[in-house]
Amino acid sequence: MTRWLITGAGGMLGRELAVLLGEQRLDDVTVALPRADLDITDAAAVGAAVRQAVGPGDIVVNAAAWTNVDTAEADEAGAFAVNAEGPAALAGACGQVGARLIHVSTDYVFDGAASRPYPEDANTHPVNAYGRSKLAGEKAVLTALPADGFVLRTTWLYGAYGGNFVSTVLAAGRAGEPLTLPDNQRGQPTWTRPVAEGIVALALSQAAPGVYHGSASGSASRYEQAVAAFEVAGLDRSLLTPTRTPAPRPAARPAYTPLAHDRWIRAGLPPWPDWRGMLFTAIRGGAVS
């Protein structure tokens, strides 16, 4: 039986994956470690955890990350420690025991200058410290594990565990608070549940190592995402106002980061649902409130 190790298991995606594996009755072979139990910047601890949890052919999923884009701009060294050096340590440890590593990355490795979804082999050019740190982590994993390293880029996550954009706007709507939201930055609002399911599908497939994109199909602005969430939840969409001049933030944001899924589809993996369908199911099912 395949054994699993999840790092960053206290975060939104890591916890979703741990719950999913438990539902599939794999929790007895799953070690799910939140940051309090494993700091991936501690290379010695990483090596010990990997050796104890997994062996040849088993699966490590790295969902640990520095995800605050603005604070990364102020502490790029700190972001690199978590997003680049940590994955490098995990990749080295996986290589020693023969385990496969699925490393979760981001759309922010791209500069946002495209006009159509980025394929997996598109040139990368991050515009902020967070993106640079995540790209360095990707390169570390693929270099150390050419036969057993996988990168799964995802984007605009929301889900049942932890704060996220959808929960925030729904709470504001229920409180009758007006919101002004950007309408000129496009991405793919993506529910963590399908991403967790995609990770399992990728891990258990015969797909070749390398980069894959795991995100909802289609694209939206934050304003459009909020409008759709309000419609599903039956809230007053007149509370929402679009803007093309959002308030300045410490870190630049790429304006367009939808991801294409060409390599994913060629590998015979399940297609990604449209973002609206994901959002409807998540809200109506109570996964996000």
Question: What is the topology?
Answer:
Blueprint: E1 4-7, H1 12-23, E2 30-33, H2 43-53, E3 59-62, H3 69-74, H4 76-97, E4 100-106, H5 129-144, E5 149-154, E6 157-158, H6 165-174, E7 179-182, E8 186-187, E9 190-191, H7 192-203, E10 210-213, E11 220-221, H8 222-233, E12 240-243, H9 262-266, H10 275-284
Parallel strand pairs: 1-2, 1-3, 3-4, 4-5, 5-10, 6-9, 7-12
Antiparallel strand pairs: 8-11
Summarize the structure.
The chain has 289 residues and is of the alpha/beta class. It has a single domain, classed as 3-Layer(aba) Sandwich (Rossmann fold), CATH 3.40.50.720. The protein is 40% helix and 16% strand.
Any overview of this molecule?
- This protein is of the alpha/beta class.
- The chain has one domain (4-162, 190-218, 258-273): Rossmann fold (3-Layer(aba) Sandwich), CATH 3.40.50.720.
- Helix content is 40%, strand content 16%.
- It contains 10 helices and 12 strands.
- The protein has helices at 12-23, 43-53, 69-74, 76-97, 129-144, 165-174, 192-203, 222-233, 262-266, 275-284; strands at residues 4-7, 30-33, 59-62, 100-106, 149-154, 157-158, 179-182, 186-187, 190-191, 210-213, 220-221, 240-243.
- The strands form 4 sheets. The protein has a 6-stranded parallel beta sheet, sandwiched between helices. It has a two-stranded parallel ribbon with strand order 6-9.
- Strand 4 (100-106), helix 5 and strand 5 (149-154) form a beta-alpha-beta unit.
- The longest helix is centred in the N-terminal third of the chain and has 22 residues, at 76-97.
- It is globular and about 55 Å long.
- It starts with a strand and ends in a 5-residue tail after the last helix.
